[in-house]
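Budget justification note: compute hours in this period were largely spent on complex prediction jobs such as the one shown. Inputs:
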Amino acid sequence: MPPIINEDICTGCGICAERCPQDVFFGSERKKPPVVSFPEECWHCYACVMDCPTEGAITLRTPVPMMLNYK
Amino acid sequence: MQSDVLSEEIMETDVLVIGGGPAGLMAAINAAEKGASVIVVDKANTKRSGAGACGNDHFRAYIPEFHGSDMESVVEEVWKSQAGWTRSYEFMKTWISNTYDIVRMWDSWGIPMKQNGKWDFAGHTFPGGTFTTLHYDGINQKPILTEQAKKRGVKIVNRVAVFDLIADQDGRISGAVGVHAREDRVITFLSRAVVLSTGGCVRLYSGITPGWLFNRADPPHTTGDGRAMAYRAGAELINMEIPARWAGPKYFARCGKGTWIGVLRDPQDNPVGPFVEKPDRRYGDPISDFYKEVFEDYHKSGRGPVYMDCRGISDSDYKYMMHFMRHEALNGILNHFEEEGIDPKNNPVEFMTYEMSSRGGIYYNERGETSLEGLYAAGDEYFGGVSGASTIGWLAGANAADFVEKRKSPSSNTGKDKALEVANMVKEIRNRKNCPAWQEFNIAINQVMTDYAGPVRSATLLEAGSLHLQRIKKKAYEIMQAGNQHELLHCLEVLNLLDVAESVFSAVSERKETRDKFKRVDYPYKNPFFDNKVLVCRKAADGPVLEWRSLK
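Corresponding output:
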């Protein structure tokens, strides 16, 4: 479930937890990689990915029920 | 039982703005420019909250350099496309006539409103129609508006969910009580005017993915909080019975279909609408603007699915579409294209009609005034998209500041009773054990709305559904529990949804006719008595009161 944190490169700046409108990072502590407390509440708005200063530290995965149908 | 949570946390200001989207931030900026002290309180963070959180790409506007002196055709087009018979023409005129100023202001603040130095209108129109949507680069609109507000001394209070309004001895709105999203705190705001701008009401009807509460076309954290607190305070709501449907990519619920440049086609590649035959950036495919149920109807009749087919798009239109998909906050879709190797140039993507919602909201006029003195509202508290939000928000902020000027004496209400009431309620919710969580109630609300006030509407169904809704509401107040502060906020959202649901049930029951998208199976005809009238709903001591009003 989204988001996925790459703890090897996350600097623990806390911007994602500060800005997530759904507050999926509720319970995160300062200067530590964020905890994903409510992954099922992610709306895939990408605020966390867009505003993260370390590219690749956060990625979002599309849940299977939300896969597009295409031909 | 007295709560010990109440720690006398009080913040005072002239104008309190509840909800920091384009409407709220513009209201705050203008009120501050008029000399008022302003607090913006947001249950998330104004930098990335609400429907404009990560951007928008089109803005309804009248630009003299583009349209010439003919503003009226822009007003007319926007009025029609927004279910004109439910709206006042005067309101539309004031909105559109102010857009030029707002657009130039945004551009000067660093929100790029032009493309290569030119005004660029495209989408949401048909060949021969009037262009009304200005394409712009809105991805950073919220951080920029937040910065502009701060520059003018506006105080931003993030992560506080306001639950109820405070009225003074004369019934004027003079503050609000909020609950912190992360800490066990109840905060009282005392003000001389309040602007509500909390956004729309999502999560009322069952979404497209069964059992999944957050797969929604609009942001699921906008739960009609403003409507509900206004309703509880006695303010008038309007159009609550009128249904709205949105449409977009199947299974990945997301607004922004106007940004796609393609042709909507059936499985045999025939266009389902009459307007376009090949992808054209100027129009998109407007059939789904006029007929959002096209996907559902094709599906139900076995002729579906219907695809958004971008095959044949020119390279420059493709680049244009991808650029604006980012600004319209379709990053989730773009990422999914990459994950799965979907290329819209080669792969038609199935679209669908999303669940029902209510078109209605707080009855505010072109000055942002509501039916209660001291209470203003703007933006998706009613309707208007980012353009309506920023324009009416701007005007509401000025009018709220004027009101503060005139209102010499501060309120005598210290808000203590309301703060204590909220604090006690919050404490009970947090202290309960072995009780149902907010999700059970939210799903129960979705069920009853969809089954009894959804696509099939009749007096007997409405009566039965309303009874069930009242039982759910009673139970929610008695036994809903939250294990932490985050769940507590969802509990408050559920209580708000219940009040919005109540107003929808009452209004649907009152409109005994069929008109446009509003359908009653027991009254399958248009009642001429309701021509040029709108239905207004407010809460009285013993329940909702409905009133028909002439639309000026």
